[in-house]
Specification:
heterodimer, A: 191 residues, Protein Transport Mog1p, Chain A, 2 domains, 7-stranded antiparallel sheet, 3-stranded antiparallel sheet, B: 316 residues, mainly alpha, two-stranded antiparallel sheet
């Protein structure tokens, strides 16, 4: 074993050591900034999709699945499949937007046990007036209980009403609201 | 043969009699800097073999016990397994390194610093700030770039910091293999915290897959730590250019990020044999190959450097 003693390097190596450490720090800083830039590029990009009679811009890295029944499509975050958008086309049968929202929300509650409607409000998204219905439920998929928050926004499109839903785990929900509103603003019934 | 140079020894400040690269060294530290300790490599090889055996034993126990092994017992076993790689390496290293061992407190201290940097900086920063898993999506290119530039560089830099701010500045960091030893210790300290976090977050992961994950993480971070440490040795003892340590951090980042991407792609598969998922086992084989390759390359490089230095020293 060698004796432990302070090693006073000469001034030239000391400068070399300091420069060397600064280069490592600069390298890591560049890496972190590049990663954040990559994140912005990936998450701000969107892809225009048309499926099930609905056209909309969804986050570029999300997975799209054509829906079954009256669901036009489901777009999911591949890194968190509980974070997703659902698009439906609803025939209003002459009812007002508020009535359509109430009717469809009641239908959803009857199909999904444990869902709790939290709030209903009038919103303007992308210059279009709509009705938003927020809700929550506990998902037990994957063996663990997760609180899912969701929001249906009903907006008119031509003679139809689009029901655009956003669901995400409670801790990730707020971070995705702005992106969801951009999705709602881009959605149209395909001509 | 030897000649006294005007500069003091790079390590101990005693009168220098030898030149190694750009650095002046006393005879003792010249001999140490050009000495190889073959038992260091043997300890790494035996550690890998024991860890593979651990995975096999855990898989057998997990299969036999089935669902009866759950809750607190599973959590406790998981936590024990999480620290096994670091303990195995430490015990083996000291059994093999009895002739002139590195001070135990230094090696343990560097490992503890690696663990501290992981829990205080690395894991919170990677999970909450970069949060790569939440946005990288399915693109392998994006995953690879983010894993190398984000996860790889941050982890490699923290392993670098654990060695650089502690033992690197002391006269104990004076041999060709010291960097590999301390870098590996820092990497294993970092890996141990990641392993404990995995077990706690999952409430005691399934025994076989949890053990595979623990071993994978330990092997790759130990290998990356070895790379970072080797380049630090070159920086301090062999007068390498100022960008040398950064090159080591970058190389370790490529290993960490590249492996994370491969593991992600492999683990995403759902192929199974007799009810056992194939992906984690393929990931384990790749990790063993990568870790073995890292230490084989480091062994070869250190030997070549020592041979070159001995030749140059003999010619003086």
């Amino acid at each position: 074993m060698t004796a432990i003693a302070a090693a006073p390097p000469t001034s030239a190596p000391r400068r070399t050591e300091a420069t060397s450490a600064l280069i490592v720090a600069a390298l890591v800083l560049v890496g972190i900034l590049a990663t954040l830039g990559l994140r912005i590029a990936v998450t701000s990009g969107t892809t225009n999709v048309t499926a099930g009679g609905v056209t909309a811009a969804v986050p570029g890295n999300w997975r799209l699945a054509v829906g079954a029944g009256d669901v036009a499509f489901v777009a999911s975050n591949p890194n968190d499949l509980d974070q997703r958008y659902l698009a439906r086309v609803v025939d209003p049968h002459g009812a007002s937007l508020a009535d359509v929202a109430a009717r469809e929300s009641a239908a959803k509650a009857s199909l999904k046990a444990g869902i709790v409607q939290v709030d209903t409000s009038n919103v303007v998204v992308g210059g279009t007036a709509g009705v938003a219905v927020s809700y929550a439920y506990v998902s037990s998929s994957g063996g663990t209980a997760t609180l899912i928050k969701g929001e249906d926004i009903f907006v008119p499109s031509g003679t139809k009403v689009l029901d655009l839903a956003y669901e995400a785990p409670a801790d990730a929900y707020d971070g995705g609201v702005d992106t969801f509103h951009a999705f709602v603003g881009s959605a149209r019934v395909a001509s | 043969m030897t000649e006294t140079t005007a500069s003091p020894c790079r390590v101990c400040a005693q009168p220098a009699v030898r030149q190694l690269g750009a650095y002046a060294l006393c005879q003792r530290h010249y001999d140490l800097a050009t000495r190889e300790r073959p038992h260091v490599w043997r300890a790494q090889a035996i550690a890998v073999a024991i860890l593979v055996a651990l995975v096999v034993v855990a898989t057998v126990i997990g299969t036999v016990a089935g669902r009866s092994l759950a809750g607190l017992p599973l959590l406790v076993i998981g936590l024990v397994i999480a620290v096994v790689p670091a303990v195995v390496w430490m015990v083996l290293f000291y059994r093999e390194d009895r002739v002139e061992p590195e001070p135990r407190t230094y090696v343990l201290g560097v490992a503890a610093l690696g663990a501290l940097l992981a829990s205080g900086v690395g894991i919170p920063f990677l999970n909450n700030v970069l949060a790569i898993g939440s946005w990288s999506g399915d693109s392998v290119i994006v995953q690879l770039a983010a894993s190398i530039l984000g996860i790889g560089l941050v982890e490699a830099a923290l392993v670098y910091a654990a060695v650089r701010v502690s033992v690197y500045g002391t006269s104990e960091f004076d041999e060709a293999t010291d960097g590999v030893i301390y870098g590996t210790a820092a990497g294993l300290g970092y890996a141990t915290v990641l392993n404990i976090a995995l077990i706690l977050d999952s409430g005691g992961a399934a025994l076989s897959y949890g053990t595979i994950s623990v071993v994978l993480t330990s092997l790759i971070l130990a290998g990356a730590g070895g790379i970072v440490g080797h380049f630090l040795s070159g920086q301090k003892l062999r007068g390498r250019p100022v960008w040398w340590s950064a090159a080591g951090v970058l190389l370790a980042a490529v290993l960490l990020g590249g492996y994370a991407t491969i593991r992600s792609v492999v683990s995403a598969g759902t192929a199974s044999v007799a009810g056992i998922l194939v992906g984690p086992w393929v990931g384990l084989v790749i990790a063993i190959i990568l870790a073995a390759a890292v230490y084989a390359v480091l062994t070869r490089i250190v030997r070549q450097e020592i041979a070159r230095a001995s030749t140059a020293g003999g010619a003086q």
